[in-house]
Amino acid sequence: MKKISKIICLPFVALAILMGCETTSLDVVESPNALNPSQASVDFFLNQIQLMTAQIHSGEEGRAENGLSQFGMEPVRMQHGFGPTYRENYDPSNFDRVWDNVYARALIDIRTMNPLAEEAGQYTHIAIGQILEAYIMMSMVDFFGDVPYSEAAKGGEGILNPKLDSGASIYAAADQLLLDAIVNLNKDETALPLNDLFYKGDESQWIKVANTMRLKLYLQTRIANADGFGAAVSTARINELISGNQLIMDSADDFFFQWGTNNASPDSRHPYFDANYDGAGPSSDFYTCNYYMNLMANQYNEPDPRIRYYFYRQQSDFSGADVITKECVTEVSLPSWWDPSEPYCIVPATNGLGGYWGRNHLDNDGIPPDDAFRTLHGTYPIGGPFDDDSFRNVSGSGAVNEGLAGAGISPILMSSYTYFMLAEAALTLNTTGNARDYLETGIRQSINTVVEFGASLASGSGFEPTSTAIDNHIAEILTDYDAGNDTDKLRIIVEQYFIALWCSGIEAYNTYRRTGQPDNLTPAFALQDPGTFLRSMWYSQTAADSNTNITQKSAPDTPVFWDTNPEGFVD
């Protein structure tokens, strides 16, 4: 994160230089508080664009602002969303910061950097910007549908109210950006980036990122009904990508942002670490959904090998907890409308590993003083403590010395994701390869990544999974897969993808709307009808108020262009 601090320090360095000049002229620079493009460093621009990408994905440390990942995890029951209806789950203002980061920061920095890099022959800088722009704009379409793009970030041309572009046209532009990026990565450049925060300037790895984003794009559009997209096009493009053998297939090529451990000036820790352990920002309403913890704890004969790395339990004994927290902890009978097969308050210890305290989907009850009982995010991917049955109350502690002290990652495109995407494509499009083999490799890649990430904390605890335990767990999943029909097979692929996607809700939200799987998600907590599922999100309140070309949606239920599934397909 020393690299990131250089970005933040740039204005102060410039100001110090100006204050030290021996001149009385007021025309030395256009403004003492802002650098014009000719004075800016291409490397500083690139670093800022990379940091913005991580914040658009995961949110911002020290701020009550969520990234798209959080907005994606809540509807699909990974994180808890309050509801009590889908319409009320979010307010348009919740998306103001994401839009600000996209349009007022990332895109402007890319537009400013490109001509400087072009003039200097720094084609790798341009390529990285193109890849990140494609990712950001695809994500904006995935969450909001039609959004400004072709006229966006062009205030210098007098376009203060950029028009909305169709999601299909933005996807097409993103695909072209990725192809152009590969061309630029194969050019001879005058200088590689000084501080590439992802791959240290390794062009071969960036080429794999570009190709894997194209895999994501064409899997996402396999059910689309738009020019240039659809099942036939997706099948052909995905097969081309497989044969090209330039995808993220190994953990050494994983695409993630590494956060630091500094807790002030600036706070460089993973934003979810801050939210779980510092007691600041959104921590007061930060719950993991019981569905997701139950999926990992009780779906098979033994708990998932990743569960102790994902979650940290602060308590083992909940007797008497109902006195100060939730009345349902010790209820003798469940409400008549609740599915008795689902955990109501605490995930049961069916397989001997229980005590997971979260919330159910769209439960909007008031927040009780349950900080000491909640299950927190653990080691992977946010850099928290490993669950070694110590059951310490660490919520709101500041956790300076907890776990990896916040040195987590934002997992954007991991090798395991590639295999799950290929498994879905093989099953639904009959693309090259065997869906079962892709599924098995995806699970193994995910488990290996998680275990390796938390090895320094789990080693010697007696709770790190053995190779035999991992093999047995995977064998049980594959047995269920072999016994199922195509619907069952797709459900199992997506369930395992969801588990691998912990803290990466963009892909989970997309996959659920695209496949309708898992089709056995916990229903909404409240007895009332939760309304139509979030087929897209509200437009930013600020954007809708300030841009005359944006009309706020009547409800956040308008499908994005690639979502051609019928109403009621997901709930």
From TrEMBL:
InterPro entries the UniProt entry points to: SusD-like (IPR024302), SusD-like_2 (IPR041662), TPR-like_helical_dom_sf (IPR011990)
Signal sequence annotation: 1-25
Gene3D superfamilies: 1.25.40.390
TM region(s), chain numbering: none
Segments forming a coiled coil: none
SUPFAM superfamilies, A to Z: TPR-like (SSF48452)
Keywords on record: Lipoprotein, Signal
Pfam families per UniProt: SusD-like, SusD-like_2
Taxonomy, superkingdom: Bacteria
Protein name: SusD/RagB family nutrient-binding outer membrane lipoprotein
